Amino acid sequence: MRKAIMVVVPTAPVILRQFIGATRELDMISIKTDLKKVYYFSAVFLTLLIVLVYFIFFVNVENYIIQKYLPASSPDPVSVKKSSMILDFRSIDLYLYGISLVLFILPVVFSLITYNLYIKKPTMELRAGIRSVKEGDFETRITEKGFKEMILLFEDFNNMVKACQKQIAIKHYVSGSTQKMVEHLNTGEITTQPRRKLVTILFSDVRDFTTFSEVNDPLVVISTINEVFDIQVAAIKRNSGDIDKFIGDEIMVEFPSPSLAFKAAQEIQARMQSYNKKRGNPLFVGIGINYGEAIVGAIGSGEQFDWTTIGHTVNIARRLCSAAEPGHIVISGGVYEKLKIKRECKETEIRVKGVNKAVKTFIFHSE
């Protein structure tokens, strides 16, 4: 019987290991709550409770057997105990060992079930959600269930994903320069004060799109212009361009250098040719590029600002775009001088509204 009592001793570290293992699983995702404290306390409390139940149970069983087999009228309790109880203790030891085994297994099973239902399963759901978000799925949501700490954790996760989804949605409607300005506004890394700097500005315009929009269904008009914009934006992004704004069927873009702007323009015209081969009625793009000094700053009212570029350089770029024939690229002399690779082109001069003298330009045809 005392051997049976000793069976309970190994259960303490076993149960503790189960609960400690559960809390270590949480460390993988850095869950900082009071969950660990709760489970450490539960493990110790449960183990002590089982030990106490063991001792109370066995003491009561022993007293019961002694009272049953050793009546008070027995002349020689010791001899009677030795003679009449040896066989009974041997048989009941098996019964006690069985009960000990059951009481030993129960807390282990309980801890495993608790671990799987309330720790492992929710943790794996959370990790799966995190992986989905890392892969770009911002529609991911986790059902808020379980005990209080897990519900709060899942709620925070869902709110975080919603916030990320909102930020990404905003980026689709805000230029890269404006995003950077907002991100660094409170850090002092950049200033919102207007300043002059050398810029390369590209304007791209879809030719005769007004006529196209008047004779086609609105859904066709929107889907078509979006397809054309997708072609242009892809080329712009590949060449480090920052889209300043969309103006109807026109795009204004700022590039780090004239070479990158010209490369993007070539890609746009080449891809538009491929696009037109799939269409019955082709659409063409005219592009103008200028390089020079401009003013950069926040333009708007007290309620809303737009971080943009304005000035003579921008105006000239837009005029060059207007002068470009369908499928042509028109660049200023400043841009041409900065190009590392010179291509065959047509040199000419054009009159620009608001400028006294003619502007030297270079016209490139689509290949």
Summary of the model, kept short:
With 367 residues, the chain is of the alpha+beta class. It has helices at 2-6, 11-27, 35-69, 77-84, 86-134, 148-171, 176-183, 209-215, 218-238, 258-277, 312-323, 333-338, and strands spanning 195-206, 242-247, 250-255, 285-300, 305-310, 329-332, 346-350, 359-364. It is 58% helix and 17% strand.
Number of strands: 8
Q: Percent range for helical residues? A: 55-70%
Order of helices and strands: HHHHHHHEHHEEHEEHEHEE
CATH topology of the largest domain: Alpha-Beta Plaits
What's the number of helices?
Answer: 12
Using brief descriptors, characterize the structure shown.
alpha+beta; 2 domains; 12 helices; elongated; single chain
Descriptive account of the structure:
With 367 residues, the chain is an alpha+beta fold. The chain contains twelve helices and eight strands. Strands 1, 2, 3, 4, 5, 6, 7 and 8 form an eight-stranded mixed beta sheet that branches. A hairpin with an 8-residue loop joins strand 7 (346-350) and strand 8 (359-364). Helix 3 (35-69) runs antiparallel to helix 5 (86-134), helix 5 (86-134) packs parallel to helix 6 (148-171) and helix 9 (218-238) runs antiparallel to helix 10. The protein starts with a helix and ends with a strand. The model is unreliable at 1-34 (pLDDT under 50).
